[in-house]
Amino acid sequence: MRRVLYIDDDAGIRRLVSRALQRRGYAVTTADGGEAGVAAAAGERFDLVAVDHYMPGIDGLETLARLRALPDAPAIVYVTGSEESRVAIAALRAGAADYVVKTPGEDFFDLLDASFAQVIERRALEQQTLRAEEDLRASNARLEALLAEVNHRVANSLQLVSAMVRMQSSALTDLAARAALEDTQRRITAIAQVHRRLYTGGEVESVDMHEYLSALVAELQGTWSSEALPRKLTLAAEPIRLPTDRAVSLGVIVTELVSNACKYAYPTSSGEVRVALSQQGDDFFLLAVEDDGVGLSGEVSPGGTGIGTKLIRAMAQSLQTAIEYDAGHRGTRATLRAALR
Questions:
Q1: Is-contact 268 305, C-beta < 8 A?
Q2: What domains lie within the chain, and their CATH numbers?
């Protein structure tokens, strides 16, 4: 049974309303004025409260404000006189769910019943919506935690594989085989860095490319720079977020292009390799990797196995684009323009 509280200082009206609403299936509690009504609503839970406007002590609007301030405030229907449209509007603006004009006879009780039924139904729908939203937020939180754990485990597994490949390469005496395993180890590291960013950052579905490329370029700097052949790697990257799969593709491309530049651009001297990532309008990004070395004459990895070139092309195709080389650049400048999503 739906429980309602009717607040009115007129004892006669309270009795009539109580009888009429009980006949219509409500469990009715009445209160003599605003103070008593607020106290009753604070002590019990009601599906709905009706408040009369004219009352001594605190009037209807003040009663409405106090009811609205209660924890888990009930829905409120405001009762006004027939010539008090401005009062009704003020009550609605203050948070009343509906208003009913007080008139003599049974019509008033029918109007109350219709208003109560509508407000209670609307309140139930609102509460169902809130519960559904809360359940959805909780579900999303669980999924994000699961994704973070998955990315954590994938990153750890890739790190273990990378360490195994590194150990295997250090045990080889064949220089070509060692170089191939070292290239493989760098490619694994590029992918592992993506998953590391996914479980350490606030997002689990996209990667901050500035943070990711900063870590990746720092690792490549440590790999390729030595006292005998120092390499300076610089990065200028905007904080663009890319979906995980696109971040992986871009990371592999950067790894390959930077590795090629470090291998072949400066055969016998030190040099700089520059990586830049910028957003192009609302929908695209531009990657550029360049050096001031000997140039490649359109070849990505002269003297290599060609696997790097194939990887670059495959990753570019996954981004639905292609690598372009600037023939006018004095060294090698590779660029790639692709969609953000």
A1: no
A2: 2-102 (3.40.50.2300), 206-341 (3.30.565.10)
Helix ranges (DSSP H) in the chain: 11-23, 34-43, 60-68, 85-93, 106-170, 175-200, 209-224, 244-264, 307-318
Cα–Cα distance, 170 to 165 (Å, whole number)? 9
Q: How far is the C-alpha of 92 from the C-alpha of 178, rounded, in Å?
A: 77
pTM of the model: 0.57
Amino acid making up residue 100: V
Determine the 3-state secondary structure of 99 from DSSP.
Answer: strand
Q: Kindly give the confidence (pLDDT) of every residue in the chain, 341 residues in length, as a single tens digit, with 9 standing for 90 and above.
A: 889 999 999 999 999 999 999 999 999 999 999 999 999 999 999 999 999 998 998 999 999 999 999 998 899 999 987 677 888 889 999 999 999 988 877 888 988 999 999 998 888 888 888 899 998 988 888 877 777 777 778 778 878 888 888 888 888 888 888 888 888 888 888 888 877 777 666 676 788 999 889 988 988 888 888 877 888 999 999 999 999 889 989 999 999 999 989 888 888 788 999 999 999 999 999 999 999 998 865 444 445 567 888 889 999 999 999 999 998 898 999 999 999 98
Helix (H) or strand (E) holding 8: none
Go through the chain and tell me how many residues it has: 341
247 dihedral zone (left: phi>0; alpha: psi -120 to 50; beta): alpha
Angle, in degrees to the nearest 10, between helices 60-68 and 34-43: 20
For residue 112, CA distances in Å to 24, 67, 116, 120, 157 come to: 10, 19, 6, 12, 67
The rounded distance, in Å, linking the Cα atoms of 107 and 105 is: 6
| Among the listed residues 253, 225, 232, 241, the one whose alpha carbon sits nearest the alpha carbon of residue 312 | 253
DSSP secondary structure, 207-222, as one string: EEHHHHHHHHHHHHHH
